[in-house]
């Protein structure tokens, strides 16, 4: 839905000097939705490759929270009400299953 509405991928992770594409993807998710609950990430077989015992990413320390409403308003210049409605529609589909 996001791609259809904006023409862009919601997440477009890349490798960095000190982190993998997968860890960057997790960082983008955290920036958009907030911290991933331990009950979610600990279900993954390889969670220790990405998270420390406190639930922080191992190699990406500076996250820049950017909620979906702000992404739509700032990056795509959507009117507030349109952005609010679309974010309200999309966020429940992105919520972490616990």
UniProtKB/TrEMBL annotation:
GO molecular function: ATP binding; protein serine/threonine kinase activity
Any one GO CC term of the record: nucleus
EC number assigned by the record: 2.7.11.1
UniProt-listed GO biological process terms: regulation of mRNA processing; spliceosomal complex assembly
Protein name: non-specific serine/threonine protein kinase
UniProt keyword annotation of Oxidoreductase present: no
InterPro entries recorded: Kinase-like_dom_sf, SRPK
Catalytic reaction annotation: L-seryl-[protein] + ATP = O-phospho-L-seryl-[protein] + ADP + H(+); L-threonyl-[protein] + ATP = O-phospho-L-threonyl-[protein] + ADP + H(+)
Lineage, opening ranks: Eukaryota, Metazoa, Ecdysozoa, Nematoda, Chromadorea
Enzyme class: transferase
Source species of the chain: Teladorsagia circumcincta (Brown stomach worm)
Keywords (A to Z) from UniProt: ATP-binding, Kinase, Nucleotide-binding, Serine/threonine-protein kinase, Transferase
């Amino acid at each position: 839905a996001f791609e259809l509405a904006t023409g862009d991928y919601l997440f477009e992770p890349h490798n960095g000097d000190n982190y993998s594409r997968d860890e960057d993807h997790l960082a983008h998710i955290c920036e958009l939705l907030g911290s991933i609950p331990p009950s979610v990430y600990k279900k993954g077989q390889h969670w220790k490759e990405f998270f420390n015992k406190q639930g922080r990413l191992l190699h990406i320390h500076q996250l820049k929270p950017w909620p979906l409403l702000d992404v739509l308003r700032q990056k795509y210049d959507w009117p507030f009400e349109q952005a609010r409605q679309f974010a309200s529609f999309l966020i429940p589909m992105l919520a972490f299953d616990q």
